[in-house]
Amino acid sequence: MGEEKTLMKMEATVTIKGAIFAGKGPEIIQSEVLAFMYEATAFLERKVKENIREAGRVGVGGAQGGLLSTIHGEVEKGTPVTKGVVAHQSKYGDVIEKGRTPGKTWPPEGALLKWMMLKMGLGETEAKRLEFVVRRKIGRKGFPGIHMFEKAWTRYLPQIIAMADTHGLKLAERLSE
Fold this sequence. Notes:
single chain; mainly alpha; two-stranded antiparallel ribbon; 6 helices; 4 strands
């Protein structure tokens, strides 16, 4: 007499797998962030050095002791912040980067002697005698900066973004393994 009702039963099973669920997420994330940072920092260091060479401003000591030799990249590891730094250790690096504005202070006495001897082919006595004139001219006229760091960043930002994208994809793949 009565109608029989048939109930449908539905089931779903969720299987949790992958490195992220195994507690390896932070380790994998840090690993890929570091890999990206090392790659990008080394890349930018090379490009800054190329800019210095192109501008002909490697410094008095050349690659062994001039401005070029003071350029270095370093990755500072941390949680939650990891950063890459490309910097110089030259007392004249900022002036070479930004230039010297006309009418500002002169270069310090004695600072140009080695440069004058090397670049102008002067002996020490002659360089000391003429240094005042060169310092005064630089103070009056200034000189443009070569923007070695700024150019490296702005010219190569698309490549750095591509590196980040590549490491982001690797990160996603590793987390889902």
